[in-house]
Batch of 4 targets.
Target 1
Amino acid sequence: MAMLEVVDLCANYGAIKAIKGLSFTVGKGEIVTLVGANGAGKSTTLNTIAGLVTAASGRVVYNGTNITNAPTAAIVRGGITLAPEGRQVFPRMSVQANLEMGAHTVSKKDMQEGLERNYELFPVLKERSKQLAGTLSGGEQQMLAVARALMAKPRLLLLDEPSLGLAPLIVNEVFELIKQINKLGATILLVEQNARQALSISDRGYVLETGRTVLTDTGSNLARNPKVIASYLGG
């Protein structure tokens, strides 16, 4: 049984049909990437899984339980967290306060363990723990957004454009961290415009066009697929 099953999912932004019968699965321990042009429905898919966008129809099934349109807090308690596009840190709060905001569904003991774990994964955040989040660099804010999502001890981590707007050297660091987080036990569903690098670390991928899945394969096969290269990898 897949950890996550998305079945015939449809969701709208106002009058716009953003997802139109989308289906895919994510297995426990995998890194799975959703590839597609802007407007393909990738971010809407993550937001619908996380309960931030209401599904019009279809199902989101997590570990055998239908969580379609469940409250976001319940979805987080169940083990799914989202690191949203655009970093979205709390700029006037300290780094540590931002991290603690991500731990509202876990015990104080788990929060302390999460802080220690994140400070090991992201040493720069430990150095800047008392600094206001708004004064961090773009790359540091991205690390903070991912670390905050990890504070809830997710079994499934949804990452929306983690490398967006970052310098190439920082992008490499972000992808190395994604691999490390996966090795530590988190299953990852990734949306990423840098499709070449995302597919290089992915077990599998799905290509989305106008809210539907049009192609699926292993990450390495998709990275070699002529259509994918021409459309999404700058080839």
Target 2
Amino acid sequence: MKKIVIALMLCIPMMTMAQSEWEAPKSAQQKLEEARKAEAAAEKARKDAEKATKKTEGQSTIELKEDPKYLTGAVPVVDGKVTFTLDLDIPGKSAQQIYDLAYPLIDQLTIDEHQVKNGTSQVSLVNKKEHIIAARMQEWLVFSNGLLAIDRTEFNYTLIANCTDGHLNVTISRIRYNYEMERETGFSITAEQWITDKYGLNKKKNDVNRKSGKFRKKTIDRKDQIFDAIKEEFSK
């Protein structure tokens, strides 16, 4: 019996070592699995964060399909009326001097190549004492001009120049379009009803409206052309 007990005691360390040798690989495998799980969780968290960021960016940033110069805010509305305004500081010149330079410039606009007919555009009101010039304009806005057809609209507006010492204020307002009036599908419409942000842009505000967009763009282009000509004249 004593020999048996001694033999059993000698076997215990060997059994312990065998158990340890057996569990060691299992422990390493567990650590590997835990590392893989941690890595997977980190990757999921990264992807979730990336999705959240893209969603946030998508809410604040929309891909523009048109030049920003034609998009939100490009057609200002003042007291319910579409009104484009040029404010130009002209240091060193009196109201009379500014008036004397502005009048021939505006008068020239009434006879340029954009006119519907000779004489339909004209300086309709002047107030020399207050240094105010008002012109009623009737022009063509040309959308496309092909060999067989031309797409254009009659463009009516009022241009007013208000001259003060050292400053010139010019506005373009009271805009109306008469489009293809000789056809049954033709129409007459104001800028307020047609080219404002509400009517002239799509729902996402990243592109112009399919129908009225060409009116909005050409109106802005013509406004820029007129205001640039005025700025150029007074920069000499």
Target 3
Amino acid sequence: MIQLEDVTKTYRTGKREVRALDGVDLTINNGELVAVIGPSGSGTSTLMNILGCVDVPTSGRYLLDGIDVSSLSGNRLAKIRSTKIGFVFQLFNLVSRASAIRNVELPLVYAGVRDRRHLAQLLEQMGLGERQQYLPHELSSGQRHRVAIARALINNPAILLADEPTGDLDPVASAEILTLLGDLSEAGRTVVIITHKEEVARFAKRVVRLRDGRIVSDQVQRNGSAISA
């Protein structure tokens, strides 16, 4: 379970103080599919960094499965990132000279995991079975998204954080990626989508809206219509 309690995040630029998050309270249960949406500068990226243990709050608490991660050491946070959290980045961050299967394998290399037998199976599940040896430039945008998702899942994390997971995909490919994320949630994985796009947020079961670092709306959705939670 993800639980934020009165979380703030403040940055300083010279003498100016910028409060990127301002008293955020948020609970996300295991297996939920949640979209966090807001305009540029609303705090969505800062929230993702805190949820992903890339950054820590200035004040308040972040409880992950009951553990307050706000004050953990850098090594402890790195361990949580490598075992509990998978990241899907907006620009993929794929290694251009490495094949699809080698890109997916990278987290295992960094974690020192020797057993690679599930690599091929995961790529098959992502619809990339025949393209395991393709380089990123030989894949379509939708296939590169799938490689990025497979890499995020290779260590079997409980939480998947996806930053604009559809990027500049066409509507058909976007729907395929969002359906895939929905299937992962249905299978019990917690999925949090960070987006600026209303059409992406509509695929989530719950939509959290940020503005000026505050949550202004938190709604569950049924059949495409939002109902206040």
Target 4
Amino acid sequence: MVAVSEGAVIRGRLVADGKPVGGAEIGLIARDRGGFGANLDIVGNPYSEMKVGTQEDGSFALTNVPSPVEWYVYGKMESLGSRGATEPVLCATTEDKEQVDVGDIQVKPGHRLRGRVILSDGKPIHDGMRMLINSDRAWDTQTATLRSDGHFEFVGLAVGGYSISPSVKGYSLPDAGGRNFY
């Protein structure tokens, strides 16, 4: 038998300079993300990211949210673009049918990260190769296309920790991992 519940509702509003931000995407991910431990035991909260769009008035409602869990709520980088960035807002659901209001989530000017990927053999980057940036707190990413000279740029980054990793066909990083920036 599987018990199914209604879950909680997390509401809020996305705003920039006191004005609503409609047509953006909001993400929700458990603070303590889950996975599998020894003997395939579940550790943390094994919930996938939930996403919802903001209405014209900037409001959003994430429904059927499991509880009890601590969550991060944030504006998705790719949907905000050059409009700015949001800090992840920590909230918690404690019981079924609960209504959690996170208030206004502020879109603030975002930061920019520019760089260049240089191939070990000095060759130009092939068309369509990419660079990925991942937020350490939120389940949020941005993808940039590498120019043939290896230059890339990310905009709309909130203050926080990030990992970046290039994806260039035929090449790999010496340590086979991304590079962390804080």
